[in-house]
From TrEMBL:
One of its GO terms (molecular function) is UDP-N-acetylglucosamine 1-carboxyvinyltransferase activity. Belongs to the EPSP synthase family. MurA subfamily. It comes from the Bacteria. It catalyses: phosphoenolpyruvate + UDP-N-acetyl-alpha-D-glucosamine = UDP-N-acetyl-3-O-(1-carboxyvinyl)-alpha-D-glucosamine + phosphate. NCBIfam families: murA, PRK09369.1. PANTHER family: UDP-N-ACETYLGLUCOSAMINE 1-CARBOXYVINYLTRANSFERASE (PTHR43783:SF1). Its main location: cytoplasm. Pathway: Cell wall biogenesis; peptidoglycan biosynthesis. The keyword Nuclease does not apply. The keyword Cytoplasm applies. The lineage of its organism: Bacteria, Pseudomonadati, Thermodesulfobacteriota, Desulfovibrionia, Desulfovibrionales. Phosphoenolpyruvate binds at K22, N23. This is UDP-N-acetylglucosamine 1-carboxyvinyltransferase. It comes from Candidatus Desulfovibrio kirbyi.
């Protein structure tokens, strides 16, 4: 396992290119199973989760190639099985369920199991597919799904699940008749998936709202599609500029999709402006505390909760963080406290009291975004911070230390 050694105290200055969106690319790769012709997907970030998805698509029978952030996929004769060894390393593997059911009428997908941030059930996915005519059994930890032909249905989610919306959207585009998804998630990554599917001939309306209408078609043709930039990677770099009191220009950076984040960072004292060359973020003044509650899009994203908490640790005054999406997404708190942060947790609420400085120490990454928060804290801490188990980080950030070092950070990767 690798670790990152971070020498703190350097204001970051310069420009960084934002990579393609992991959480848009993953469902789009799985959606390629729906097509009867080859597809080319551009701007796909070089991440562990992408490599895992390509390995899974190969196992499912697709021909796949990945080179220079371009993925070429030819969906051939499909096999129904997504094995546990792959699924347990990436929960998003459950997104092959909808495409397999609607293409070949069967699927054998390992139940992903929980992860460090929560139980991560898939009950909303299965309930929707059952309304469309699928039947499921659980056998030796595998969800076995069968259906003669999926038919359109009026589905209302109990909660705006991102993965559930994506899975049912992918099944509905080839199902018989019309499907309505109510209380659907509105994330930009879902809009991107819908745009990809429509570029292949799908009939979709209302994507990006909480009510999506899909009219099934008989088949979907190939396409060439370029994935949008990663709003969470971009927001992480905005936070890096803030916590180090630097000045960063983010090229190819989404802006409108980051409104909930930029408003909070500006409230903390950052200046964030969209320019012709990209998004300029700087922080010359001391940071001050803010309160946040994580919400489904367009609210403050749960995937930025750890990163902004690191900033709060060094902000003047107190901050309150309410984590309303996942039941256990404070694993980074104890690690931040090892650096000198003052944080109290009560259930899904954390109270952060800003301190004058953090002091570097060895810390342990527990999940993807917690790792990012610890790297940010290390960039601002006095001395050396060793972030261990950074395989979590490599799942969602493309060569993060290289990008940060080009703007003045002093980070090196070492073998444990
Ligand atoms: C997606 O996960 C993202 N992953 C997550 O990003 C992100 O944190 C999450 O959406 C919320 O925005 C990808 O897009 C690959 P959900 P997903 O279904 O789809 C509960 C990252 O860091 N729920 O919207 O799994 C669930 O337990 C990752 O990039 C059910 O109860 O999220 C959770 O509490 C981490 N039943 C809440 O809903 C279900 O059937 C939100 O889950 C499904 C979900």
């Amino acid at each position: 396992m690798d670790k990152l050694i971070v020498e703190g105290g350097v204001p970051l200055t310069g420009s960084i290119e934002v990579s393609g969106s992991k959480n848009a690319a993953l469902p789009i790769l799985f959606a390629s199973i729906l097509l009867t012709e080859p597809v080319t997907i551009n701007n796909v970030p070089d991440l562990r989760d992408i490599r895992t998805t390509i390995a899974l698509l190969l196992l499912l029978g697709c021909d796949c190639g990945y080179e220079n952030r371009k993925v070429r996929i030819s969906p051939n004769a499909l096999h129904p099985k997504a094995p546990y060894d792959l699924v347990r390393t990436m929960r998003a593997s459950v997104l092959c369920l909808g495409p397999l059911l609607v293409r070949i009428g069967q699927a054998r997908v390992a139940l992903p199991g929980g992860c460090s941030i929560g139980a991560r059930p898939v009950d909303q996915h299965l309930k929707g597919f059952e309304q469309m005519g699928a039947h499921f059994e659980l056998e030796e930890g595998y969800i076995i799904g069968r259906c003669r032909k999926l038919r359109g249905a009026h589905i209302t989610f109990d909660l705006p699940t991102v993965g559930g919306t994506e899975n049912l959207l992918m099944a509905a585009v080839l199902a018989d008749g019309e499907t309505v998804l109510e209380n659907a998630a509105r994330e930009p990554e879902i809009v991107e998936l819908a745009n990809f599917l429509m570029s292949c001939g799908a009939h979709i309306d209302g994507h990006g709202t909480s009510c999506i209408r899909i009219t099934g078609v008989n088949s979907l043709h190939g396409t060439e599609f370029t994935v949008m930039p990663d709003r969470i990677e971009a927001a992480t770099f905005l936070a890096a500029a803030g916590i180090t009191h630097g000045e960063l220009l983010l090229r190819n950076c989404p802006f409108a999709e980051l409104e909930a984040v930029t408003l909070k960072l500006q409230e903390m004292g950052m200046e964030i402006t969209a320019t012709a060359d990209g998004v300029l973020a700087k922080c010359a003044r001391p940071l001050h505390g803010v309160d946040i509650t994580t919400q489904p899009y367009p609210g403050f994203p749960t995937d930025m909760q750890a990163q902004i908490m690191s900033m709060m640790c060094l902000a003047e005054g107190a901050s309150i963080v309410q984590e309303s999406i996942f039941e256990n997404r404070f694993m980074h708190v104890l690690e931040l406290m090892r650096l000198g942060a003052q944080i109290k947790i009560s259930g899904r609420t954390a109270m952060v009291r800003g301190v004058k400085r953090l002091t570097g120490a060895p810390v342990m990454a527990s999940d993807l975004r917690a790792s990012a928060g610890l790297v940010l804290a290390g960039l601002a801490a006095r001395g050396t911070t060793a972030v261990r188990r950074i395989y979590h980080l490599d799942r969602g950030y493309e060569h993060i230390e290289n990008k940060l070092n080009t703007v003045g950070a002093r980070i090196r990767r070492e073998k444990e």
